[in-house]
Amino acid sequence: RTRSFERWSAKARDGAEIGGGRRIATSMDVSEATPGASGALVRLYLCRHGQTDSNAVETIQGSGVDRPLSELGLGQAKSISDALREVPLDLVGSSTLTRAIQTAEAICQRHPGVHRVEHTGLREMSFGDYEGKVLEDVRDVDRDICQKWTAGTVDERWPGGGESPVEVVGRARAALRDLGILGFNCERGVRHVAVVSHGRLNAFLLASLLGIGIEAYNTIIQDNCCINVIDIDPCATVDSTTAATGVLLNFRGHLAA
Known about the structure:
Elements: E1 16-17, E2 23-24, E3 42-48, H1 53-56, H2 71-83, E4 91-94, H3 98-109, E5 115-118, H4 139-150, H5 165-178, E6 192-197, H6 199-209, E7 227-232, E8 244-251
Parallel strand pairs: 3-6, 4-5, 4-6
Antiparallel strand pairs: 1-2, 3-7, 7-8
Helix pairs in contact: 2-3, 5-6
């Protein structure tokens, strides 16, 4: 069954099953996931931003609706900062959208002096003319395009001038290259990196990096302010489908029930 737009938050499971029947932990304490990045690997803490008022009423934000965090979202950002406080972060990256910037800045408060980078390639998928519309009003459009994507037509663009999953993954992978996480010299030096991005981009990117295929993105749930932990070989090519190993997906244990 196709998972539509922002309704991925419903059922995070212990040991989430992703494409190909693989299972990755969802309930591990983040502190148990932090000692990694041994050898030449980079440990990436890929996070989704905190909630905005648009998230709360299911308005499509994409890359064109730039809303700040709500009061709840600000609290979530503090929680994610607390969860990552013991991680020896070398770099904190984010998209250039306000909701991601505010979440990343909260993380930085626990890591004074950490290198901070904003990158346009980490912005949420563009939904073209549909940005600013309430999801319920365009449910049929959402369902139809998601069905095409999960059937493998991942070069199909969102109607009305939006992006395709392939385009989103391409720029997101290029952003990881620019941050020294992927397709770079192994001697770059970063070992623990937190990146704050967006729900749809995260799902596409994780499906691609973990080698299950972009079309399996709908098996990867991304709640507001979740944490995903993956180990990446920085020497892998930018388009490699075997560059990453999943450690933890959609972790939410730091958020209030």
